[in-house]
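hey m, so remember when u said the tokens were messed up on ur end? i reran from scratch. heres the input so u can diff it against urs
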Amino acid sequence: MLAALLVIQAFIGLVAIFCLSAFGFDAPLGADGFILRTWVWEMSPFIWWVVLQAVGATVGVGLIFRAYQIGDASYVSIYEYSVFIFGPSFAWLLMDQPIATLQVLGILCITFAGVMIALRSGSTSLRK
């Protein structure tokens, strides 16, 4: 089913690229013309970041998968939600993307919930 979805998405993308190339719309510069722009391959300066992200994401998903296999789900889920903390943090550090007020509130809620679950779970390592 996943393979069929990927094939359908690839087909739609190829049809869109063909139509945009055939009709030759004038796309505005920058983000405004994103939807009308044909496929351009200007990723050479960023390809190493893409590879690093792909490898890191694959390793991260594998590790969280293994953690659910060997650990208690109530403990592992705390760490799984840390993606909502590190995602905006890396976007801020690497791409100068501002962190919105609601994101900060969400990060604080996730951190508070994780601390509360850790304290109430009976873990003695945090209480010492």
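this time it looks ok to me. The helical segments are 2-23, 47-70, 73-80, 83-95, 101-120, 124-127. if urs says something different then somethings off w ur setup not the seq
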